[in-house]
Design brief:
Elements (H helix, E strand, L loop, with lengths): L11 E7 L4 H12 L8 E4 L3 H12 L1 H10 L2 H15 L4 H12 L7 E6 L2 H18 L2 E7 L16 E4 L2 H13 L7 E4 L14 H10 L8 E6 L7 H14 L3 E8 L5 H7 L5 E6 L2 H14 L4 E4 L19 E4 L5 H12 L6 H13 L5 H6 L5 E3 L4 H13 L2 H6 L14 H13 L3
């Protein structure tokens, strides 16, 4: 280990490397950036690889490509596609190397340590491929840290040569370590379990009056408006589903107020145009990926959101927030897209933050028949932070209204608390920077 370095040292440059493939990676970078310790600064580096961005969108919206992607993410096919993807990512790192060189040259006093945090697997492999040569060429210590942005032990996240790889669970750590050891050509890396890095802004404690307001929104005996957030994914999937869901919920009750957060793009243009002109639908839109992330957090600063309809992407980990925290709404999860979203669902079920498959089916069946849930399910609901929605938007709207009328949501907002686990905390960002600080100091 070289001489110790502190996070606020003038000899250290911190770079957060991100890609524009979906908003999830940007949300994690945003959380880490805004959670930096006082007096510490970082630079944001964005990948210039447009091919990766295009492929991400196509595999999200094209059903044939999506099926192939899901097939390639498991079993024997994963072993082949991992090698191919890893080689592709490492094939042309020159642009990234030039960006890092420019960052170093902008400093009057040459830094001794370059800490690069990658939240996208593409950038992680590119950085790993140039790390040692770059350090030798520019006489700087390079520390590469990788943040896995789903609880999904996909082999591609085994980044050989990374100094630290942070994962959200012991399960993913064990799986990736086992695969890493089996790949004799991969340089070693150290895996660390920390709670998922949820934005510290969303973890802010609400005043008592706003906590009460959230409960009132979900109390069927009250008349408070029910504020529903609907963040549109970077790949703009499930738009037809969301449009029909909103329409059906509007017919169920005039208590619903919808807040749609979306990027303005050709893919979302038609959907957004249909949302204009309704007083109960509020739009927060930008052409910039980064501004969309900021608009999302701004929404939670200015409104008390009771429900959020979202894919089980990295948004699933908002389940680590309690109802008394700013972002601690109830999550209504639409159908998963890709293996990583199924893995995120399994994380929530393992920790009882989401109904088990049998419980979920029981809830759907009761809602379909208009039956009462019973005291046992209402008690169970006090440990849930999310529920899954049916695939059909009309059935989803019916299910949401049933959960509201039958006090499922009201039970959930009276949350009983988390179980004992290092994986269950909303302070992952603080814990991340503490761990990085200790590592840099050689502890």
């Amino acid at each position: 280990m070289t001489a110790e370095t502190s996070l606020d040292s003038q000899d250290l440059v911190i770079v957060l490397a991100q890609a524009l493939t979906g908003l999830g990676h940007l949300r994690v970078s945003h959380a880490l950036y805004h959670g930096l310790p006082t007096g510490t600064h970082a630079l944001l580096l964005t990948s210039q690889d447009t091919n990766i961005n295009y492929m991400h969108r196509m595999t999200s919206i094209n059903p044939w490509l999506r099926s192939f992607m899901e097939f390639a993410q498991g079993g024997w096919a994963e072993n082949i596609t991992t090698v191919l993807a890893r080689d592709y990512f490492r094939r042309n790192p020159k642009t990234l190397e030039d960006q890092l060189r420019t960052i170093l040259e902008q400093h009057i006093t040459k830094p001794k340590t370059l800490l690069v945090v990658a939240t996208h697997v593409n950038l992680a492999h590119q950085l790993a491929s140039v790390k040692d040569a770059f350090a030798k060429k520019y006489k700087v210590r390079v520390v590469l840290v990788v943040v896995v942005t789903d609880d999904s032990p996909q082999h591609i996240w085994a980044v050989g040569g990374a100094d630290l790889i942070f994962v959200p669970s012991e399960y993913t750590k064990r799986e990736l370590e086992a695969y890493h050891r089996s790949q004799k050509r991969l340089p070693p890396s150290k895996y660390v379990v920390l709670p998922y890095m949820v934005s510290p802004n969303l973890g802010t404690e609400l005043p008592d009056v706003q906590t009460t307001r959230r409960k009132q929104e979900l109390d069927p005996t009250r008349l408070a408006s029910i504020h529903v957030a609907i963040p549109i994914s970077g790949a703009a999937v499930q738009l037809t589903y969301f449009e029909k869901l909103i329409s059906d919920l509007r017919e169920s009750s005039d208590r619903f107020v919808f807040h749609i957060v979306s990027q303005q793009s050709p893919a979302t243009a038609s959907f957004l145009s249909h949302m204009i002109g309704h007083h109960e639908i509020k739009l927060l839109v930008s052409i910039s990926h980064r501004e969309v992330v900021e608009l999302y957090e701004s929404l939670y600063e200015h409104e008390v959101i009771a429900l959020e309809v979202t894919k089980p992407s990295e948004q699933s980990f908002k389940a680590l927030l309690k109802p008394r925290q700013r972002g601690g709404c109830i999550l209504l999860l639409s159908d998963p897209v890709g293996r990583q979203e199924w893995d995120n669902i399994r994380f929530l079920v393992r920790h009882s933050l989401l109904p088990t498959p049998s419980e979920q089916q029981q809830l759907w069946n009761l809602a379909q028949r208009g039956k009462k849930p019973g005291e046992l399910l209402l008690m169970r609901a006090k440990v849930w932070r999310a529920v899954r929605l049916p695939s059909n938007p009309t059935a989803s709207a019916q299910f949401i209204w049933w959960c509201f009328e039958q006090r499922i949501f009201f039970s959930m907002v009276r949350f009983a608390g988390f179980g004992q686990s290092i994986e269950l905390s909303s302070h992952g960002v603080d814990m991340f920077w503490d761990a990085i600080s200790l590592y840099l100091k050689g502890k």
